[in-house]
Write a structure and sequence with these properties.
Chain lengths: 383, 441
């Protein structure tokens, strides 16, 4: 990888992912970075910022504090903030300079927790990974802190939705629609990690029958819940009528058999020799590719531009993380479905279908981020 | 369902009365909040004022994100590229190689040849001790037709010497090459918002046969280079003063520092300095002062006792503006600011003495996140941040004094005040637009 981008955007970083995942839960997220650096999160990564006053703050670390390794100011500032605002928990997330000076976030969190009595956790993000890693770290840390004890299982078939943030789901009603569809199919949604539910509600997660990982960022917490509470998981994002029905059916199959064969629901029975490409986050783009194949019978390739596992790819799918890797992959495409900020590197011969992605273009293309939970007709009509 | 928390908090730590406030930093340094008002320009916006220049940022992904999308929102992505620093680069220490190869790779790929390239390095380069001199030496040797300048996105240095904003305003002019001077040519430098053409700064110069240029007038790189032929630079923004000092050192262009202010006496004082440079007799300004006074009467009769708040993003001299309006019997009830420039010192103490109960609210103190954002009665805000915190649709949507200066500037601000009282604006929509006036959509 050349690590250069002549023209395309970059994904939301890990540290913003932490803040996004914890935004609605009543805690305080502290970004340990220099003054002004929180404006990226507030402006481009957080569509809820104007209307909802979640406690996301910045340490404002200075050159001298970094050189002297002065953690004490950070600790005292956070303690002072907890006294003023009484958060339910404190999360501290790092950025490049704290990484370079070896800031021990776990130790800092431990000191704060001891001194305030407020649960605290430190996350060694460094601004060098995408939001996938940040959301992932935050949800796992949250579970390890607050989801410790078993809860009685629900009598009905039930799920938790894991890996839900506006960075992948925007603010377009898709999260509530996803819940509604599941519940209309007699699948109770116990908790959604983490949009629309309180911290208290998340603590009931172990009562669910199974977890549905709807973005790659939800996988680590799924693995934790599996190891701690023996909860199985499925990986897929509901898109379009047919694939959403398949997901529902797989959840119901689990209820009957108590077994999960392959949790990666978008991987099997995929078609070959695709000329249609979907670019984006792993679970979303693979799920959309699968949904389009089911609806059209045409092969669709997913190109994943964020962190993902090779083992979860179908044969045509690939991972390409920067312009130098993406351009050759896109050369053969006849149709490309992606965020509009990818268009400048797509071949002019390919038809481009704009599908906005908050995690890539931020607030610019909100109008191009429709709820597609059980309806992808607007894309189908263009294929 | 997600709801605004709107906790009932007391405003301790976030508000202080002027009689109890300290100058220049009335609030302690602690965790920071960033409000949704985004009209102030950042280094991307400022850099794009240089025509035919390409910006390249070399940072971690998290730092790139904000600037990439700033350029995208300006619809200027074709003038903007990035090089991403990853963990392995920090561990291997191959920062120079990454920068040189990355810039070269981008230049080879660009569909056009930029006349100038601004390379923005970051906090990481500073801490790792990257040999930037070597990098620029090699790039200049390999691309002799391109002017390279060193720019910085290193906010961690904000308390160490010049701030990133000051450096950017300076580097914007760093590529001017020395040439013979034209004694009838003057520049206005250092402003993000272009100076209004009806300003006395233009009128006086024009009456003396001078040509005045601001970077906003430059259509191409040649026009930009022509700024090097001016004999003097006018600067009225304190953060741009280092730019003027640099140009004096480099090009021997005289610096005329004529700071923005709202006092008839001070304006006349600086115009006298200006007239002296232009080699003309200072005009009698009594007519302009009378015009200001007439406008004041008209606006005051219209808005009466309507409360007015001012924030520090609206003008470089919020206290000077508050003093001027209070002296003219406007109902200024609140200032929003985190700190003040030294130029505000006298105004601060004047307010402390004459209006001790005037409220001073912080902008980035953490409680500002949670305190109710509302106005109980019709309230005018001068500036986006005041409008946001007061949730009022009656506001002056401006930053950096909107390019106003002098008597004409006072009248201009009064006209905006009049309009703010009359016209309701969509606060939520307007204040979230980045870089007011730079073409962001």
């Amino acid at each position: 990888m050349k690590q250069t981008a002549r023209i395309i955007s970059t994904y939301t970083a890990d540290v913003s992912g932490v803040c996004s995942a914890l935004f609605e839960l009543g805690g305080m997220s502290v970004i340990h970075d220099a003054s002004g650096c929180n404006s990226t999160y507030n402006t481009h990564d957080e569509p809820r910022w104007y209307d909802y006053d979640s406690m996301v703050f910045l340490s404002g670390i200075s050159e001298m504090e970094a050189i002297m390794g002065d953690d004490e100011k950070l600790i005292q500032d956070i303690i002072s903030a907890t006294e003023q605002l009484s958060p339910k928990f404190v999360a501290i997330a790092g950025t490049p300079i704290p990484m370079m000076i070896g800031t021990d976030f776990k130790a800092i969190a431990s000191v704060i927790e001891k001194q305030t009595g407020i649960p605290a956790f430190g996350l060694a993000t460094n601004g060098m990974h995408t939001y996938i890693q940040g959301v992932s770290m935050a949800l796992e840390a949250l579970a390890k802190k607050f989801v410790i004890n078993p809860v009685e299982k629900t009598k009905n078939l039930s799920v938790n939705l894991l890996g839900v943030t506006p960075l992948d789901f925007s603010i377009n009603n898709s999260v509530s629609h996803m819940r509604e569809i599941l519940e209309n199919n007699q699948i109770q949604v116990i908790s959604c990690w983490s949009m629309g539910d309180s911290l208290e509600q998340l603590q009931f997660a172990p009562s669910a029958s199974i977890n549905l990982v709807v973005s790659y960022a939800g996988l680590s917490v799924a693995k934790y819940l599996k190891s701690k509470f023996h909860m199985p998981y499925l990986i897929a994002r509901p898109y379009g009528k047919k694939f959403t029905s398949e997901i529902i059916q797989e959840i119901k199959n689990f209820a009957n058999t108590n077994q999960v064969k392959n949790p990666v629901l978008f991987q099997e029975n995929r078609l070959h020799d695709s000329k249609i490409i979907v670019i984006g986050e792993g679970v979303s783009s693979c799920s959309l590719a699968k949904a389009l194949e089911l609806e059209t019978g045409k092969a669709v390739k997913s190109v994943i531009a964020t962190e993902f596992e090779q083992t979860m790819l179908a044969h045509d799918d690939s991972i390409a993380r920067d312009e130098s890797e993406l351009i050759p992959v896109l050369k053969q495409a006849e149709i490309i479905i992606a965020d509009p900020l990818y268009q400048p590197i797509c071949p002019e011969s390919a038809k481009f279908i704009s599908l906005g992605h908050e995690g890539f273009s931020g607030r610019i293309y909100h109008d191009l981020m429709p709820d597609m939970t059980d309806n992808i007709d607007w894309i189908l009509s263009q294929l | 369902m997600l709801k605004r928390l709107g906790q009932e908090l007391d405003n301790t730590n976030a508000m202080v009365l002027f009689k109890n406030a300290n100058f220049p930093t009335p609030f302690p340094s602690e965790l920071e909040y960033s409000c949704s008002a985004r009209g102030c320009w950042n280094i991307v916006h400022t850099g794009f004022l240089m025509p035919e220049a390409h910006e390249i940022y070399v940072c971690a992904a998290g730092c790139l994100r904000g600037v990439v999308l700033t350029a995208a929102e300006m619809q200027a992505s074709e003038r903007f590229s990035t090089i991403e620093i990853r963990e392995e680069n920090v561990l291997e220490g191959n920062m120079e190689e990454l920068l040189i190869n990355g810039v070269s790779d981008i230049l080879e790929q660009l569909p056009y040849k930029p006349k100038a390239v601004q390379i923005f390095t970051s906090c990481i380069h500073h801490f790792i001790g990257c040999d930037l001199k070597l990098c620029y030496q090699i790039l200049r040797k390999n691309y002799p037709a391109i002017d390279f300048t060193d720019c910085y996105m290193n906010p961690i240095m904000r308390k160490s010497g010049l701030t990133p904003d000051q450096i950017m305003r300076k580097q914007l002019y760093s590529l001017l090459h020395k040439r013979s001077q034209n004694n009838k040519k003057i520049n206005i430098i250092g402003n993000n918002i272009a100076t209004r053409k009806n300003s006395e700064l233009y009128k006086l110069a024009e009456s003396a046969g001078y040509e005045v240029t601001e970077i906003h007038d430059c259509k191409n790189y040649q026009d930009y280079q022509d700024m090097a032929s001016a004999s003097a630079n006018i600067c009225y923004h304190a953060t741009a003063k280092p730019a003027g000092e640099m140009l004096f050192e480099k090009l021997n262009q005289k610096l005329l520092y004529l700071p923005l202010n709202y006092s008839y006496g001070e304006i006349q004082h600086y115009l006298a300095i200006y007239a002296n440079y232009l080699n003309i007799i200072p005009p009698d300004w009594s007519e302009q002062i009378a015009l200001c006074e007439n406008k004041i009467t008209q606006v005051r009769n219209l808005i009466g006792e309507t409360p007015i708040a001012i924030d520090s993003s609206a003008t470089m001299r919020p206290l000077g503006l508050a003093k001027f309006l209070l002296e003219h019997k406007f109902n200024i009830f609140r200032i929003y600011a985190d700190s003040f420039s030294q130029e505000e010192k006298q105004d601060f103490y004047w307010l402390q003495e004459n209006y001790p109960d005037l409220q001073l609210f912080a902008i980035s103190q953490i409680k500002m996140r949670m305190l109710p954002r509302k106005s109980n009665i019709k309230t005018i805000a001068i500036g986006q941040k005041a409008a946001y915190f007061l949730n009022t649709p009656y506001f002056i949507n401006t930053v950096e004094n909107g390019g106003f200066w002098g008597f004409s500037g006072i009248i201009g601000m009064l006209e905006l005040l009049e309009d703010a009282f009359i016209t309701e604006k969509n606060t939520k929509k307007l204040v979230q637009i980045k870089g007011l006036g730079c073409g962001t959509v």
